Amino acid sequence: MDFFTAVMEPFRWLVSVILVAFHDGLAAAGMPAAGGWTWTLAIVGLVLVIRAALIPVFLAQVRTQRRMRLLQPELKEVQDRYKGRTDQASRQAMAQEQMALYKKHGTNPFSACLPLLIQAPFFLALFQVLSGISSAAPQGQGIGALGRDQVVQFDSASIFGAPLSASVLHGGGDSTAVAVLAFVMILVLIAAQLLTQKLVAARSLAGQDSESPLMRQQRVLLYVLPVVFGVGGIFFPIGVLVYWTVSNLWTLGQQFLVSRKPIQN
């Protein structure tokens, strides 16, 4: 077992345990155990558990963004003081003064990426679990907390004619149904991402210098991340896209609530 596999193993087990718990609960409530919507709702349940656990991180992120907005005038003073000075010593001094300001205000310019970074292991774990189902099912193997029968059930489960374990790039099932459903979900998750960043920018960047670190960071998040997500979507199984889409809609809902009622320090 290599280092990456060893690091990801606990996340794979945790993701699969939550997935199985929701699936078994839905099956006990009367939904078909092998049904595509049963497994889809189990994935939605997984999103809800992970995102609910990250609410404290989100609240801390909002407070940090507020501090970043408040320190912008001081950052601009530092930048103006070193404007036009391109020597290494001046650039280093300016960077040190900026870091001192971040430390003073208890923030940093990369705080907006924290929830995404925390979610990454869970997303990768779900990808590894679901992408391995197609090869595990014919061999009668389980994956994580998913037993052999559950792996077989998931492998045959589909929604709108598209298997949850299929992807655009690697195929599986009706290729047209897979491509159409993946395309629709990619559009939804990109739209949710764009609207989320628009809400963040409207709340925290009003009146800011267009060349400030916070503005540059938001431009990256606004335009680069949706492109990355859209291109990456063709690699992921439908089940992973369900997770990704619901997670982005959750984020949009959080930001909408915050824009209506700002969180205080």
UniProtKB/TrEMBL annotation:
Residues 39-259 form the Membrane insertase YidC/Oxa/ALB C-terminal domain. Keywords: Cell membrane, Chaperone, Membrane, Protein transport, Transmembrane, Transmembrane helix, Transport. It holds the Pfam family 60KD_IMP. Belongs to the OXA1/ALB3/YidC family. Type 1 subfamily. Required for the insertion and/or proper folding and/or complex formation of integral membrane proteins into the membrane. Involved in integration of membrane proteins that insert both dependently and independently of the Sec translocase complex, as well as at least some lipoproteins. Aids folding of multispanning membrane proteins. The chain crosses the membrane at residues 37-60, 109-130, 177-195, 220-244. It comes from the Bacteria. This is Membrane protein insertase YidC.
